[in-house]
TrEMBL record:
The lineage of its organism: Bacteria, Bacillati, Bacillota, Bacilli, Bacillales. This is Phage tail protein. It comes from the Bacteria. Gene3D superfamilies: 2.40.30.200, 2.60.120.860. It comes from Bacillus pumilus. Residues 315-412 form the Siphovirus-type tail component C-terminal domain. Residues 14-118 form the Siphovirus-type tail component RIFT-related domain.
């Protein structure tokens, strides 16, 4: 069996059975010894380049010396190239030849040892690809800024009444909510492209906290979570409502949710929005709303911010991703974020630029590189950008402000 280097293998080069490879790259520990204290303190860990020693034979050639020249041309490269061993076809090392190649020669037969050095100490496995913020992803939250982390953006209220306020509760993970302190106020989030929603099915939900309220049933049947669609032909409305009505204090945070089915929406629409209110009979009210979510799933799912998806590396060490985005519309910035399990920000990358529809942005995070339509644009990275890696063996949340593809290669110790 022969190995493959730089995409090439030679039928007359054979790896011998006595070739052994180290289980992992060398690990060097820096231990600080403290006088009067047993043992020491681990100060630093360094993973050093990996060395691969290959025992090989050359046989079945007409001219051994010419074969040696051909092997030298094949194996001596200016930079690391992919190396795949015959007994490990699903792993790739990135290696350069190191040292001399000495052979014991007998006429047209040669036996010897060559050494590769891998500056990147890790093995590379399969390439993974994930779409983030895809409109047809059933798990994607279609509500923008559903937890008000970006203030009032994308939301509208009657006469602009109400404020985004910080909250802290053991009942919910959200850090902000939209607060309304008077009755008769409507809060809504309109959808772009309302006709895209015709025929869609899914779940809508939000979290509500009402206190210090008074309710008059003669003035209404209670507030609710609902969709309102407007027909383009005559301006008439079609409602899709939650059956649960709010008629008093909630005694803490509660979640409202209901399944929706827009199969009956067959006409052209001019508007569609999700809304909730402090109307429907309240005469006094202090209300907070947050955690809005609309998905195309068959059941209620765990809340995620808009533009958030799951990625997972099957490797055993962190790996840098490549991010690719083709802008569907103009934008003045772009962000891609690594989130904690509670959806809070762990690390994020920001770029400020006047993007137009059709622009193709590619971020090579490992090399801090950025190209826009093939042109170098690394200068548009915001100085606060934190160039993150995808952790191994973990379901990881990634959020992007535009539909994006996240690609990375699984890496192994």
């Amino acid at each position: 069996m022969s190995f493959t280097f730089n995409g090439i293998s030679k039928p007359y080069v054979h790896v011998t059975l006595d070739t052994n490879r180290p289980m992992w790259a060398p690990v060097e520990r820096e231990i600080i010894e403290v006088p009067g204290r047993p043992g020491g303190i681990l100060r630093n860990t360094k993973v050093k380049p990996r060395s691969l020693v290959i025992n090989m034979t050359i046989k079945d050639v007409d001219d051994l010396q010419k074969a040696k020249e051909e092997i030298a041309e094949w194996l001596i490269t200016d930079k690391p190239a992919p190396l795949v061993m015959p007994d490990e076809p699903d792993r790739t090392y990135y290696a350069v030849l190191d040292g001399t190649g000495q052979l014991d020669e007998f006429y047209k037969f040669g036996k010897g040892t060559i050494t590769f050095t891998c500056p990147d100490p890790y093995k590379h496995g399969a390439e993974q690809s994930f779409i983030i913020d895809g409109s047809d992803d059933p798990n994607n939250n279609q509500i923008k800024n559903g937890d008000f982390r970006e203030g009032k953006g994308d939301w509208y209220s009657t006469s602009n009444i109400g404020e985004v306020v910080p909250i802290s509760s053991d009942q919910v993970k959200f850090k902000q909510a939209f607060e309304i302190l008077q009755p008769g106020i409507y809060l809504n989030c309109p959808f772009d492209g309302p006709n895209w929603w015709r025929g869609k099915k899914g779940y809508a939900s939000c979290w509500v906290n009402i206190q210090n309220s008074a309710f008059d049933s003669s003035k209404g049947n209670g507030a609710m979570l609902y969709f309102r669609a407007t027909k383009a032909s005559d301006g008439s409305y079609v409602y899709f409502r939650d059956n649960v009505r709010l008629t008093g204090d909630t005694n803490g945070w509660i979640q409202l949710s209901f399944p929706f089915d827009f199969s009956s929406l067959t006409e052209e629409l001019s508007q569609l929005y999700l809304a909730i209110s402090t109307a429907g009979g309240f005469t006094v009210v202090e209300a907070q709303f947050t955690g809005f979510m609309v998905t195309l799933t068959d059941e209620l799912t765990t809340w995620l911010p808009d533009g958030t998806g799951h990625v997972q590396s099957a490797g055993t060490v962190p790996t840098y991703p490549i991010v690719e985005c083709t802008f569907p519309e103009a934008a003045s910035s772009y962000e891609v974020q690594l989130l904690n399990d509670d959806t809070s920000l762990k690390a994020g990358i920001s770029l400020n630029f006047d993007f137009i529809a059709g622009d193709k942005l590619v971020l090579d995070i490992a090399n801090r590189a950025a190209t826009l339509n093939g042109e170098d644009k690394r200068a548009i990275y915001h100085y606060t950008s934190d160039f993150f890696q995808i952790p191994p063996k973990k379901d990881t949340l990634i959020r992007a402000t535009q539909p994006s593809e996240i690609r990375f290669t699984d890496q192994y110790k």
